[in-house]
Amino acid sequence: MPRSDDYDISKSIDLKDAVSGGSQQTSLEGFLEESSQAEQKINTDEVLEVYNFPTEELSRIEGITFADSVAEEVTDYTHGMHTYPAKFVPQIPRWAFRLAELDRGDTVYDPFVGCGTTMVEARLCGLDSYGTDISPLARMMTEVKSNPLFPEDPARLKSCTRKLLSNIRNDTTEEELTDENEYFNPPINWDFWFPEQAIADLVKIKRHILNFDPPVEVSEQDRELLEEFYLINLSSIVDTVSYQDENQIKVRKDDGKFEDGLPETVDLFEKTVEKNQRGAVEFAKKCGGDGLFANVVGEDARTQAVEENSVDLVVTSPPYINAIDYTMAHRRSLIFLDFFDQESYKEHRREYVGMTERAVTKDYYDELRLTGYDPIDEQIKKIFQKGERKDKIRAFILYQYFTGMEEAFESLDRVLKEDAYCVIVVGDNEIRNEYIPTAKYLNSIAESVGFDSVTNFKHYYRKVQLQTGRRSTGGKIDYETVLILQA
Ligand SMILES: C[S@@+](CC[C@H](N)C(=O)[O-])C[C@H]1O[C@@H](n2cnc3c(N)ncnc32)[C@H](O)[C@@H]1O
């Protein structure tokens, strides 16, 4: 189904090529020079599946010796449980594990963990992992995807699902969509965004999940994880039964979406759970009893959440400046699943590195704020001085992004062991017709915080469908840069 994560880079990377390596190294000077060639657009159809490996030395990473089987496809095991904008493919963290020559039981950390790709893959590869994300929905997905459910007997999940579905189907009560119904935390303008039947069915499913009494004996930990598993499945269908145009990242209503009839919400939930439980059972069979941990810790990458000097590798993709509004992408789930009410949701939007324009109020953008990094500040000033309100807002967004990333790097430098690698995957941007060489800037911020820049390279993808609606603000992203830093 085409969805907002069409931007997924999996579409073009030939990962076999990636593993066998290539020699198209981009030197740092070359990279910096190239990055400064503003608006140079790459014809990605011609570039095709290029995945440049940085140096001879770094392409020694053949074969995983500490795991017998890992995900071959981007949706294997629990990877495909929920769509997520701009998630990376599992092969990227796996490549980084090889780069760092990790041993079984070593520790990986992803401070912008999103839907948990790094942690799922770490677990499959025999590694301990930590992850942080500002979004409670992302944290819940990651928890569910990277921890085995019923590790002693994964098939128990199937009996639970049978019982849950039969409870839902046998319940013929009409759901009251009023304030008195404690399970109805309506997303903003719900009656504009959902057919009434769809929201009533969603509320009924939620009520059954939150009151579910499993037919098998379960530990407290499994009970919690089971509930979260079902809630994530519910979240994954919320937009499908709403009028949201699922081909858009931006919020956009598609009035004709249900011209051929509204999908039956309970049927859709059933299909989704059945698909996802196959992956969850496979994951639990592989990882149950492995003695490893996958811990979601902390919320904000800018605040240290992991013990100092304890991490063997960081691999992460930080947010894109002004390109993907995660709170908008997930706002219906965030509210419907009770993470926020409408007021606290507004506040939550300000906590993101790469805060969305909608969340920037006058107090933030009215005065010129600078980062202390000359080239970045030159660009901030240039945009601010264009003088319109939206220029000032975007100047603030740049300031907020790079100062936030500086704090995140400081924290990463503390938690990484000496000489450990930190792999950052990031795209460049265009803001108000200004090309922003984000990767280059992050590289110099990391260096000034104390990292050594080992090398970097770009990977290109064939086609990007980062549809941002009528007002495209984030600019096209035709390639991403992989920065390899060392603590
Ligand atoms: C590009 S996505 C990461 C996707 C991830 N690699 C995956 O495969 O799912 C960036 C993530 O950064 C998170 N984020 C934004 N601000 C943050 C902050 N201050 N601390 C932690 N995470 C943050 C967003 O919620 C989003 O999940």
From TrEMBL:
<keyword id="KW-0949">S-adenosyl-L-methionine</keyword>
<dbReference type="GO" id="GO:0032259">
    <property type="term" value="P:methylation"/>
</dbReference>
<protein>
    <recommendedName>
        <fullName>site-specific DNA-methyltransferase (cytosine-N(4)-specific)</fullName>
        <ecNumber>2.1.1.113</ecNumber>
    </recommendedName>
</protein>
<dbReference type="GO" id="GO:0015667">
    <property type="term" value="F:site-specific DNA-methyltransferase (cytosine-N4-specific) activity"/>
</dbReference>
<dbReference type="InterPro" id="IPR029063">
    <property type="entry name" value="SAM-dependent_MTases_sf"/>
</dbReference>
<dbReference type="GO" id="GO:0003677">
    <property type="term" value="F:DNA binding"/>
</dbReference>
<keyword id="KW-0680">Restriction system</keyword>
<comment type="similarity">
    <text>Belongs to the N(4)/N(6)-methyltransferase family. N(4) subfamily.</text>
</comment>
<keyword id="KW-0808">Transferase</keyword>
<keyword id="KW-0489">Methyltransferase</keyword>
<dbReference type="InterPro" id="IPR017985">
    <property type="entry name" value="MeTrfase_CN4_CS"/>
</dbReference>
<dbReference type="GO" id="GO:0009307">
    <property type="term" value="P:DNA restriction-modification system"/>
</dbReference>
